[in-house]
Amino acid sequence: MTVLFFLSSLARAQDPAPATEPAPPTEPAPATSADMAAVMALLQQLAAQQAAAAAAAAAPAPVAPPEPAPAGPDVLPPADPAVPAPLVDVATEDDGSFGKTLNLLEKKVSWSAYGDVILAGDEAGLTFQATHFNPILGARMSQDLYSEMEIEFEDNGLVVKLEYGYIDWTPSPAISLRIGQFLTPIGEFNEGLHPSFRWSQVSRPDVFTDVMPAVWSDVGVQVFGEASSAAVDFDWSVYANNGLGGAWDPEAGNTVRPLRERPDADGNGRIADNNFDKGVGGRARLKFRPAGARAMVSMSGYTGAVEDDDTGRLVILDLAGDLDARSVGVRFEGAQTLYDGEAFERGLYVQLWGKIKKITPAARFDVTHRAVGDTYTKTGVALSALYSVRPHWNLRGEFSGSLTGELAPKGTLMAAFYF
User: Which of 109, 205, 236, 243 is the most buried (most CB within 10 A)?
Assistant: First the structure.
């Protein structure tokens, strides 16, 4: 009974009643079974009261519902049209992304890579070659700040260099500022189509070796943006970079390709620009969405002084287009170079492709023409088929040859992957 009296007093302390004069203590009587039942009931009451008090203390204070996110600079910018995302038509996920996403230092970091190995045979012999293994690393530092870089490991590892590395600031979804080394936004192949995970054939069109120096990246600054409507998308870019330049004689049969390295009189490449004139250029692109298809057309231009004394002005003009009807498509790109106002070189490729389940056959016609010095006209054809073994890797074969003079046939097998 003493226990019962103590617990009763404790229960009254947890749930106090109006104060009264305490009764004089009495001598406790021996405990009975009824007393024990009462003790258990009081214990349960105490436990329930303590649990309720703990739950009330742990419950968060009510907060007002969050305000809607403001439009404008605080909204995540759209995906970079240049990238790897890599760069997007070959996406392996529903959201158009590929690669791996990590969380490092509370920042969203992604990394991906692509590579390809070929077995090429011609009249000279048969050669295995690890042509590319290029990792790509990107980091979103805030809603309006993003950085990305790609490192090249090419030609069995003999070529190791930075393909591009830049930082993007997107104060508004309609405009972005890019600073660093970036792929020059001229045409479609140089900036977007050249990786093997986007280009379905093995070889590259001749126009990008004889006329325009793909793959071409340079250090500078770029401003780009986009606008959309129900029927058409429009994007644009303007840029200034160090530009193509160096010691060069257009009459000696040289192409513009070596000018990426700005060679000196001894042929040694230079990191620094060789003159005070900056290369400038821009691109405008329209994308249409006709029923069951996609279409695109772009126009690009570039100009810059080549020689060390700011003379020898090089101009590149480019026109590209693409029609994708899901299971069949056609794309083309043509470029014209001018040197000191006179036509220098021009070239064009046209590619037809189809898709039959896992197989993508393609046929390409190339033509290039040189109008200065040792003039020539070259034409060629490349026939290929790509088999998609898995979403992340494929096998392809190609036969190519010249249609000008001797055929000079070449057969190539490739295994390509990306993640």
Answer: 205
Residues 239 and 301 placed together within one structural domain of the fold: yes
Q: Does the CA dihedral 66-67-68-71 come out positive or negative?
A: negative
DSSP letters of 224-237? EEEEE-SSEEEEEE
How many structural domains are present in the chain? 2
Specify whether the CB–CB gap between 383 and 400 falls below 8 A: yes
Is position 74 within any domain?
no
0.85 exceeded by pTM:
no
Classify strands 125-142 and 145-154 as parallel, antiparallel or unpaired. Answer: antiparallel
Q: What is the CA radius of gyration of the chain?
A: 35
- The tens digit of pLDDT for each residue in 286-296 reads 999 888 899 99
Average pLDDT score, the chain: 82
* Containing structural domain, residue 7: 2-16+28-53
At position 205, the amino acid (one-letter code) is: P
Asked if pLDDT for residue 365 goes beyond 90, the answer is yes
In a domain, 236, yes or no: yes
62 domain residue, yes or no: no
Q: What is the pLDDT of residues 172-230, one digit of tens each?
A: 989 999 999 999 999 999 999 999 999 999 999 999 999 999 999 999 999 999 999 88
58 confidence band (pLDDT: 50, 70, 90): low
pLDDT of residue 108: 84
Residue 105 within any structural domain of the chain: yes
Contact 260, 321 (CB under 8 A): no
Q: Which CATH number goes with the domain that contains 174?
A: 2.40.160.10
Write the CA distances from 122 to 114, 324, 411, integer angstroms.
26, 33, 7
Whether the CB-CB separation of 372 and 388 falls below 8 Å is answered with no
pLDDT at 95 over 70: no
Assess whether 34 and 105 both reside in one domain: no
Q: Kindly state whether residues 285 and 352 are assigned to the same domain.
A: yes
